Amino acid sequence: MSTKGPSFLYGNTKGSPTRHINFPYAKEFNKNTIGEHMWHANDMKLTWKQYEENGVKFANEISPENLSFIRDDNKVTYKYKEKTNELVLVDKNGYIVTYYYPTDGKKYYERQKLKYERRYEENEK
Question: What span, in angstroms and rounded, lies between the C-alpha atoms of 60 and 43?
Fold first, then answer.
């Protein structure tokens, strides 16, 4: 019997997709782009460490009834939670691109969803 408690990471230890999800879990922020997004921590009133921890935790949250997900053409996953107005983008390798509160809330997420659904439909024809 395992003594390890439940992890907030989904996927598996190698970070690859599973039958339950179609994208890897988030490991950490992309160090190449994080400088561009540091102001989000201030906007969210978080210390830099809190921002990183909250971003990874949110990116790995599993709650289909409370979260919406889409993937774009580059396999970037957009995850949005309306209740808290949180949005995170995770690249195909499991690195967080950015994490923030969109100023226009769910409208921003819905625009992204519509854009990628149209592209998907066009590619399927």
Answer: 22
